[in-house]
Write a structure and sequence with these properties.
The protein has 132 residues and is of the alpha+beta class. It has a single domain, classed as VC0802-like. The protein is built from 4 helices and 6 strands. A 6-stranded antiparallel sheet has the order 2-3-1-4-6-5. The mean pLDDT is 94.
Length: 132
């Protein structure tokens, strides 16, 4: 297993980075074939959830609300305990919703586009607070 598990180190070293691309999170039928590869495709009982750039989603005819991605640069272990809870609580305190995708190396937080800068600032403050 790789990645950091210590919560204090994860928070201090999370280095959140805001992706300038605006994304759409949409649902399509299981058999739907995209013309571009989605950033993510996840199968649910009701249909497949896709994350596409908003531009690509519009081209596909499946556009949705705009989200921006904040990537936590720290390599977190999939078994790390409390990281999601810590950054979710931080964003909750600022009234910001979060849709989280945990990749093998990093956590990716999709926040409403209108809240992206505030979310980044809140996560940076959480990281600075955890350094000491």
């Amino acid at each position: 297993m790789s990645g950091e598990r210590n919560l204090a180190l994860l928070l201090a070293d999370m280095n959140p980075v805001l992706d300038p691309i605006v994304y759409s999170i949409v649902t399509v039928p299981h058999e739907y074939q995209t013309t571009v590869p989605p950033l993510m495709r996840f199968r649910e009982v009701e249909g497949d959830t896709l994350i596409l750039s908003q531009r690509e989603a519009e081209q596909e005819g499946v556009s949705g609300a705009g989200f921006q991605r904040i990537t936590l640069s720290v390599h977190s272990a999939l078994e790390a305990v409390w990281l999601t809870a810590a950054f979710s609580a931080c964003l909750t305190d600022h009234g910001i919703s979060a849709n989280v995708v945990a990749g093998y190396y990093h956590d990716h937080i999709f926040v409403p586009q209108a809240d992206a800068d505030r979310a980044l600032q809140a996560l940076q403050a959480l990281s600075r607070k955890s350094e000491g």
